[in-house]
Amino acid sequence: MSLQNKKILLVGCGKMGGAILKSWFSEEDPEGVTAKNVFVVDPLLKRDLSPVRGINIYDDLSRVPDLKCDILLIAIKPQDFEKVLSGYNKFIDKNKTLIISIAAGKTIGSLENIFGKDASIIRAMPNLPATISESITAYYANDIVDDTQIEYAEHLMETFGMAVEVKEENLIDVITAVSGSGPAFFFYFMECMIAVAKKMGIEDDNAALLVAQTAAGSSLMARNILFEEWDYSSIKQMREAVTSPKGTTEAGLNILMDGRLQNIVEETMNAALKRAKELNS
């Protein structure tokens, strides 16, 4: 589904909005976004957009030309939501405009309060690896969104990773706790491993490289289970393949699998879920 002639209005160009914008132009895509049809509004724009040439950038809503956009992408902080978005209705054509929000904790209902219950709205949750085009973005669409708009949305999302649709909006909060916050959880586990490696005598740079590359290789193997013919059918099976009886891995896993970590992971994800629900209210 070609996006070449689609006008896209991006509201907010911070860390995530900027990463998404750059991803649209990071690879040659004959059906992709055309720079002249991209309009960015961010009064506090501080990101370097030099690799993206030809787009239209504005520091104030009043400077945006009179247009009806095909896609309105909202990438602002939740606390700025109602105040900032109230002026954007004039860019909406209810017969064609698709509204996509990646603002954490902002429901379809809160968007409908601004743009109307007859607006085509998608609520999406990307994650930090969007900055290297390796995101997983979960999204939920309201009943007004049609199949063609879904194709446009997925085309945009797949420029910065993978996209998966969920059929219940409340699952977006759960996904926030899994993949939205998940990178930070993995990073912290890596920090712990690096700290212990250094305590055991490994030099700082080598400790970081050993842990980072181990995590990268392991995650690629885990992902291969889902998308390729592979020697393993589950992550558990891969873990068992590394674990020789009475070996070093088994000795470590006997500690790691004593139940404490499972409880900590559950508490961690439930705390993130609870906060996601609080942001909705």
Would you summarize the structure shown here?
The chain is an alpha/beta fold. It contains ten helices and eight strands. An eight-stranded mixed beta sheet has the order 3-2-1-4-5-6-7-8, sandwiched between helices.
Key features?
single chain, 281 residues, 10 helices, 8 strands, alpha/beta, eight-stranded mixed β-sheet
List the helices and strands and how they pair.
Elements: E1 8-11, H1 15-23, E2 38-41, E3 56-58, E4 71-74, H2 81-85, E5 98-101, H3 108-115, E6 120-125, E7 135-141, H4 147-157, E8 161-165, H5 170-180, H6 182-199, H7 204-227, H8 235-242, H9 248-256, H10 260-280
Parallel strand pairs: 1-2, 1-4, 2-3, 4-5, 5-6, 7-8
Antiparallel strand pairs: 6-7
Helix pairs in contact: 5-10, 6-7
Main structural class? alpha/beta
Low-pLDDT ranges: none
How are helices and strands ordered from N to C? EHEEEHEHEEHEHHHHHH
* Helix run count: 10
Strand composition percent:
5-15%
Q: Report the sheet with the most strands, covering strand number, pairing sense and barrel closure.
A: 8 strands, mixed
Strand order of the largest sheet: 3-2-1-4-5-6-7-8
From the spread of the alpha carbons, the general shape counts as elongated
How large is the radius of gyration? Answer: 22 Å
How far apart the termini lie comes to 36 Å
Count of DSSP E strands? 8
Helix amount: 40-55%
Average pLDDT number = 92
Quaternary class: single chain
